[in-house]
Amino acid sequence: MLQAVPATLGAAATVLLTLPVRPLFEDDAWVADAVLGVLVVLLSGLALRWLTSRAVLVVGGQALASGGYLLHTYVGETTTFGLPTAATIGAVGDLVTDAQQTITEYAAPAPLTPGVAAMLGGIVVLVALAVDLAAATADSPAIAGLPLFSLFLVSTANSDDGLHWGWFVAAALLWLAMLGYQARDSTERWTTVVAGERGGQDADSAHRMLGRQAMQVGVLALAAAVVLPALLPHLPQRYLLDGLGRGGVGGGPGETVRLSTELDLRRSLRSPSTEPVLTYRTDDPTPEPLRVAVVDQIADGRVRMSEPGPQPPGGLEGDPRPEADQDVPRRERKMSVLENGVAAPQLPVPAGLDVLDLGGTSYTVDAAGTVTVTEAPDEYTAVTQEIEPTEEDFPPSLEGAGPRSGADLLALDPASQQAVRELTGQVVSEGAGPLQAARQIQAHLRSSAYTYNLELEPAEDGEDAVLHFLRTRTGYCQQFATTMALMARARGIPARVGVGFLPGTSEGDERIVRASDAHAWPELWFDGVGWVRFEPTPGSDAASTPGYSLPGVDEADGSSGSSEETSSTSTSASSSAAPSAQEDIAAGATDGAPTDDTAPWWRWPLVLLLGLVLALAVLPVTAILVRRRRPEDDAARVEQEWQGLVVRLGDLGMSPPDGATPRQTGAWVQRRVPGDPAATDQVDRVVTTLERARYAPDPAVLPDIGDDVDAILGRARRSRTTGRRARALLWPVEGRRAWSDGWRRLTDRLPFAGR
To answer: Which three-class secondary structure state does DSSP give residue 382?
Structure first.
């Protein structure tokens, strides 16, 4: 038996639970391939169960079909005539490595790399295979809940925002529908016997009674599953995937926040939570941002936090600002954290850490001055040395030793280096010194040519993130900080990106930091001063702009002027230079808003829906065509109409007794399909006409019994449940026999058929 209904329900449940996984990744392009993979599993299973009842052959064939689909989709260029080669094995290994690296190093939403797309497609297809095996091939839909639950866990256990209860209810209803279908088939035989013993009552009465009871149990169970979690205490979040589990945002008292190892702060910035993640006091009237990590790796438009190397515990002995000359002004600042909700190993502290008291908690400090802890302390105290350099403290040229670091702090991202160099050459005036160049880059990015917005326009296929930012001129702190760091490097200034939190809002003598205060900023190196912060992010969504980063002279031509006049002039000059740079970055982008060639999200669901409708219509249409074949002989016509009546009654679950004569069958039909005297006359006319066609030596002209047959079938349908009528319509025996006979005739003509 094909088990089309439970197989289709299982495929629908798999697709449904695939959709909540989308927010874990930046791009939805993988969904269409995964859904097509589910369709391959469904259709191959239907075809194989039609040809054989052996589960091993069915599952093996489905695995070959779905495996071939996955190879063709993700590593098709390495196959030969669709068959894997040695290169295919290597390509699959590369995809696995890529997927493993991405999900462990990136926080949700993670980038959709080729390995991740292949991993997601493989997981969904594997779940679809397991669900189809349980629901259809093994006829055990209860077990199908296990693989469906595993797919449900991927999204629920790696999402901090929580999954809407509607996803659970919809998937549970599909699973219950599979169970109900199996229960109906299982009880159909014995309910007929029980009903007959109680006076010939229609077996559907027992079905309806059991169905109502099952529905009540199912509704109560679903209601309890939705309501009870709201009444029970919420347990701590536990992640299935190391990387995707990072970067979560605290949403209530007692929850923690941690910034991911891949710098993408939008999730934290968009957090609706107003709960504090850090409460502290400080003697600094304009506090510095609180840094948790320093980033020096920029590739493919992304800035990734370097994993800290082994460091000895403690390590705060000596000058906290060894790179700054002793005559650079500095001021001691103290902060006392009253409540810390930032998860280990991150610890927010300002730059220039001098003294740290964690109340006995062990910690390490790396060469960049970032602190990592083994366990997040609830309270701690930090004393820092804040430098306040003047313009005279900065070097006039780029000659110097440079910072000590294992990373290449002048490296540019190959994908965007040409555009970055061209834009830097237009923004920075000829002959500008290091500080003047940094000021001009910052002023350009803070100008009205750029817009702060968390909602980014769709990127073009394969477009680098920095190029996308320069084309749209829209982004948030991550894009501004990354771009300034690259432009500074293009000018020969070592640069990196700091990530952490804004100093928060003042409430009395305390400052409150929330998840939405997550921030990124560039840090540039100047000999004799060391690492200093700049603030290219415009508006109120940034920290205070350091005084040394604001121009005191008109750096475009070297003339004197006030700070305000110079800033305005620099900004205007930068803004006027921007359009020509953008023309080189993205031709045509200045003609208007970028066009979005991305296909609408509903395209693939619509294609899947149309394909499903066409697949469901195959057997009903075939059955209609079979019935329309009218033989020329009247006796054959009557026999065909009689056989059609018997077969279609069987589709409705009302198969007449085997071996019964036409008159016995007619009496059985009258008992099963009660009606008025006219209905009895219709059955009698059909039976009498059939007997004449079969047994009369010369039946002469036989009347058309088609209307009587249709009337009998109409009353039979009205006595059945909606589910039984739908099954009779979509799964008719006549349609199945026609396709089976056609397949048999085709295979008989093949040379290997054994004739």
So the answer is: strand
Q: Where are the beta strands (DSSP E) in 61-202?
A: none
Q: In whole angstroms, what is the distance from residue 62 CA to residue 83 CA? A: 16
How far is Cα 608 from Cα 605, in angstroms, rounded to an integer? 5
* Closest-CA residue to 120 (of 10, 230, 38, 243): 38
Tokens of 455: 């909602």
The confidence score (pLDDT) of residue 113 equals: 84
Question: What is the residue whose two structure tokens read 């062990």?
Answer: 362
Query: Which run of H or E residues covers position 295?
Result: strand 290-299
Query: 15-24, 166-175, 230-239, 601-610 — which one is most confidently predicted on average?
Result: 15-24
φ and ψ at residue 609, rounded to 5 degrees = -65, -45
Q: What SS3 state is found at 386?
A: strand
DSSP 600-629: PTTHHHHHHHHHHHHHHHHHHHHHHHHHT-
Maximum pairwise Cα distance, the chain? 127
Task: Dump pLDDT digits (tens) for 396-440.
Answer: 988 776 787 667 889 998 889 999 999 999 999 998 999 999 999
Task: Give the Å distances, CA to CA, from 443 to 210, 493, 519, 554.
Answer: 74, 17, 19, 12
| Other Cβ atoms within 10 Å of 290 Cβ, number | 27
**Whether pTM exceeds 0.70:** no
What confidence tens digit (pLDDT) does each residue in 252-299 have? Answer: 444 556 665 555 566 666 666 678 889 999 999 889 999 988 888 877
| 375-389 as b/e: b if 16+ CB within 10 A | ebbeebbbbbbbbeb
The DSSP symbol for 135 reads I
Residue with tokens 């939805």: 28
Closest CA relative to residue 489, chosen from 409, 395, 426? 409
> 91-111 burial by CB neighbour count: b if 16+ within 10 A, else e?
bbeebeebbeebbebbbbbbb
Cβ atoms 341, 277 nearer than 8 A = yes
Q: Judging by DSSP bridges, how do beta strands 518-526 and 530-533 pair with one another?
A: antiparallel
Q: What is the pLDDT of residue 541?
A: 61
Give the pLDDT confidence score for residue 211 in this predicted structure: 59
Q: Residue 440 and residue 574: Cα distance in Å, rounded?
A: 8
Strand-pair partners of 339: 279
Distance CA 313, CA 363 (A): 6
Rounded-to-integer distance, Cα 582 and Cα 472, Å = 9
Listed in sequence order, the residues at least 6 apart from 577 whose beta carbon sits closer than 8 Å to its beta carbon are 426, 427, 444
Contacts of 629 by beta carbon, 8 Å cutoff, 6+ apart: none
Contact, 264 vs 479, CB < 8 A? no
Eight-state DSSP code of residue 568: H
Distance CA 221, CA 317 (A): 62
Contact 732, 717 (CB under 8 A): no
**pLDDT of 574:** 40
Which of 500, 84, 492, 437 lies closest to 287, judged by CA?
500
Using alpha carbons only, give the angle 235, 240, 244 rounded to the nearest 5 degrees. 105
Pairing of strands 451-452, 474-475: parallel
Tell me the CA end-to-end span of the chain in Å, nearest whole number.
27
